[in-house]
């Protein structure tokens, strides 16, 4: 079982930026992408893009992936400049792992509702009650990582938890849905879930999954473990009301690997809709349907080709992490990379 304490709603901690509508023609998009490619060479830069980025931004990236894959690339790149097409905590992680490099985040509005759910002070208060081990989802600030024992992503959270002795209580922050999924997957009864969530994923509800199955009874379900439907869907798989063989709980990279080996032709995808672009590029012969077509991360969509261009031209905005915070956070991040 996964325990969660009562918590005051934290929606007031962040302000969602408007999703800018880009009106570039295909020719204008190609022209900007070509200019970015030239600037990238001049700056000896690498462009890292998260799976939830705009389609045209994903297409200029040297590497597209989830938080774990992007962290690994940031740690190993020989480039002088890292252009992070993602959100702030991801750029912070790159700056921690590559302190000698210039790390650019093309738009500083690219925050994260989940990372906003917990501060370092709040974590310290929770640690006073549950001091054994803190596992911080990578969707957290550098200050929170500095207070944690391990970092994890949705791809390796269960693996990280299994590496911790079973007699140690785990405080899992900040995503309650991922904590519940990990508790069920690992069988750990001593996981304490901090009650945070992603505003995009928590809006993907069980009724939407049920509606998708009603419309497409043979479809295969791909469900991200941050989703608000996870606990219900896991229970329904266990009691047989959801098809066990066609219901997968996967990170975004897990989804990529799964579709390559699945014989299914049609998939219902429960995560941010930017993921569909990459899935369709990898498997153009298969059909991908969003469980919730409105699952759009406003923060991710602040990054546009114009902002990437400006960032490379000006080498701004740069993301830096104070030395002592970075030193302490690096311990938790390195443990994640070693176990991953």
Topology record:
Elements: E1 2-4, H1 26-43, E2 45-50, H2 55-58, E3 63-65, H3 67-76, E4 81-85, H4 88-97, E5 102-104, H5 120-129, E6 133-137, H6 142-146, E7 150-152, H7 157-162, E8 170-173, H8 176-186, E9 191-193, H9 206-215, E10 220-223, H10 230-239, E11 247-249, H11 252-261, E12 266-270, H12 275-282, E13 287-290, H13 305-314, H14 323-339
Parallel strand pairs: 1-9, 2-3, 2-4, 4-5, 6-7, 6-8, 8-9, 10-11, 10-12, 12-13
Brief digest:
The protein is of the alpha/beta class and 340 residues long. It has helices spanning 26-43, 55-58, 67-76, 88-97, 120-129, 142-146, 157-162, 176-186, 206-215, 230-239, 252-261, 275-282, 305-314, 323-339; strands spanning 2-4, 45-50, 63-65, 81-85, 102-104, 133-137, 150-152, 170-173, 191-193, 220-223, 247-249, 266-270, 287-290. It folds into three domains: 2-7 and 115-193, NadA-like (Rossmann fold, 3-Layer(aba) Sandwich); 26-113 and 300-322, NadA-like (Rossmann fold); 201-290, Rossmann fold, CATH 3.40.50.
